[in-house]
Structures are given as structure tokens and as C-alpha cells.
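Query form — protein fructose-2,6-bisphosphate 2-phosphatase

QUESTION: What is the three-dimensional structure of this chain?
INPUT:
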Amino acid sequence: MPNYTNNIQDSKICVILIGLPARGKTLIAQKVVRYLSWLSIKAKSFSYDDYRRVVYGKSNELTLKDRYEECYRWVETAVADMIEWFEEEKGIVGVLDGSNHSESQRDKIEEICRKHDIKPLFLESWFDKPELITNNILDVNSNSPDYSAIDPEEARKDIEDRIELYKKDYTTLDTSTDADKTFVKMINIHQSIIINKIDTYLQSRIVYYLMNFHIKPRTIWLSRHGESMYNLEGKIGGDADLSQRGLKYAQKLPEMIQKLVGPDEQLTVWISTLKRTYQTSQYLPYKKLQWKALDELDAGICDGMTYEEIERQYPEDFKARDENKYLYRYRGGESYKDVVTRLEPVIMELERQENILIITHQAVLRCIYAYFMNVPQEESPWMSIPLHTVIKLEPMAYDTIVSRIKADIPAVSTYKEKGTSQLGESTDSSSSKTRNIITSAKVHSL
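ANSWER: The C-alpha cells for fructose-2,6-bisphosphate 2-phosphatase are given below.
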């Protein structure tokens, strides 16, 4: 497997966002950080609004003029904190989430970055479609911490006034005047992208990601295969058939999905190349695509063994996996980190698509779920993804809404508690934690 982190350890990049208010800058910042962190690349967003809220409180607690004149103060603080993070915590990609609308401010940030051997990458979100701007204003109005307790009409007016004020000295990026700068200009998010002077591997990875995501509302459905014969026997890996209860789940799944998405809505179903996922999907009346990348984590020489057998035959390995389950690689097999690497094309395609149902395996779903929920890597291998349960993900600008729909069909637990070879279900508390100031999870059980 390619190791991205080996290629970029000596790189330091500052992504400098540019754009008027209500241009989706915070969404872009959070998605870039989430993607890079998922790939084990140390990334962090420094939001100017967060710094302003610490000093002055919510947006409406300062006059518009004061907010505008004081903005340079929290920009300087954010940049200083980012430099400290690069130096003390060995950061790789820092993201400055703010308007950075004036050319003079951008030049000052670039000068500081170059002084500290940090490559600046300017990223502008530029809109010329009124309907998109209106939608973004409504989204900021509904979800931003600044407007949580403000009358919606007052909030809308405040955002529109800010846009007009910032327009006065706003300078957009242009290939003729900014030919010497490394930059990406996203026009109406996904309509078109202008790329200029991208010259490092990591910059190209960020650009590739930006070219693939959109902000349309969509739903992603996740399900493990039905209970398999190996699940009944407590064995891992393999290519076993479904059990009788697993077949019942496969027969129940079309009714569940059609009830959830609506009888006229279309889905594309993605499955692995292993029999148990195909058997689970066989009754679904939708187009199906097989992905080798969705195959279960390769357990190497432990394939087909129970945890008790692994603990008995390979006690040192059993202990080492519990101590660092994300990085531990089975002998002749894979680690969770390896699975993340091979899942990157799947994530890219998921970002491009709208409504997808993925039927795959426990470890693979943990990795996909961790991406959308911004779950720390050390926690992701311990999340509970039970059998005979459909997980509904609704990615939003400021959070991801999660619902879990259980089928009324019993199944064994395949969850192994840390430090034991016994199987037993865990409570999935990790998915309800707030991951950072902007991105949180809302979890519902139906």
C-alpha cells in the first residue's frame, strides 16, 4: 500500500481561504481538514470567527463597522497560533478559515508563511449565481453559532450587510495578476475550477479532493452484510455464505430501504466482491456495482480463525493489536490504515455522488463512518457497527445527521471488547461526541 505520510512529512502547507461571507468557506475548510486527517496527514483549521467569538462574543454583539475594523486583530492571532502549531505539534496542513478579501492581507500572510518555510496555497470560493448565494445565506443563518438565538430576518440582513461591506476592498484571484501565486479558484463550488502553479504532491492531493466534492443535499446509506456462517462461528474474514437469519435480513432489506427513501427514489448499491455482500443485496431492485476496495480487512494468516484461537496461537500479536488497533497489521494481511488508503477512491466517488447504499463489512464501514463523522483514528476501530442495521448519513454544512434503523431480525454480536477475545456488543458513544467547534454529529435511533 502507498504511504501518503512518508511522502509529505517534510511538507508544510497553509491553505488560505478567500471569499465574501456566505461562500461556503467554513464548509470547505472543515472538509479539507477531515479528508487529510482521515489519511493520517496532520491538519487543523484556524477559524477567524472562532477567535472573534472568544474576544467579542457572537456576531451581533459588535457593530458591523467594529467587526470589520477589528478583523485584523484576530487574523494576526490565528496566524500566530497556526505557526506555533506547525512548530510545536509538527503540523502538516494549516487552514486559515476567513475572508482574506484584501490583497494586502493576503500578501502579509504569504510573507509570514514563507519566512517559516510554509508553502501558501490560496483557495478562493467565488460565486456569481444569486440562487447559490441565497441558499448559502440561509444555511449560515440556520447553522452558524453567531445566529443561533437571533431572529432569522435580522440574521439575514446582518449577513447581507457584511457582504456589501466586504465587497468594497475585495480582490479576486486572477491568473494574469496572480500568476506567481499557487492558488485554486472554485467557481460556484463545483461548476468550474481554475488551478495555478500547483507544484507539490500534497498540494495536488488537496486539489484533487476539491475537484470531487459538491454541496448538494444527499443521503448515504450504510449496512453490513447479513449475518454469515462465519459470524455464527465467531470466525473472522473468509468468504462465507449468509446464515438463515442473514438471508431473512436480505429479504427484509428492500422493504426497509424503499420505506426510508421512498418508492420512486433511485439508489445505486455498492457492494464488495465477497459472497455475503452480494447475497445481502440480491433482492434490492437497484443498480449494483462491485468494488474490490470494499472487501473486508485482510486478516492474513489469521483469516478464518476465532479471536480465542488468535489469542492462543499468536498472543503477542493479539496484545499488540489491542494496543494500537488502527496501525496494527495482521501477518500477511492489513491494518485499518491500509483499508483507509484503499478506500480513498471510494470516498472520492462518494463525494461526487448523491444517493448511495453501501453494503460491506465491519472494518470497512468503520473507516467510511469515521470519515463522515470526523472520528479520531484511534477510536474508529472500536466503533460499534452492528449487523442487521441500516445507518443513514445526511452530510450537512456544519454537521452530519445520523440515524440507525434496526431490522427486527436477531443477529450475533461481532464486537470484540478491548483486552478480551470474547464477543459482546458495545455502545456506540463515539458517534454522538462533538468533534470540533463546527462539525458535530446528531444521532437518532429509529
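ADDITIONAL NOTE: The domain at 11-210 is CATH 3.40.50.300 (Rossmann fold).
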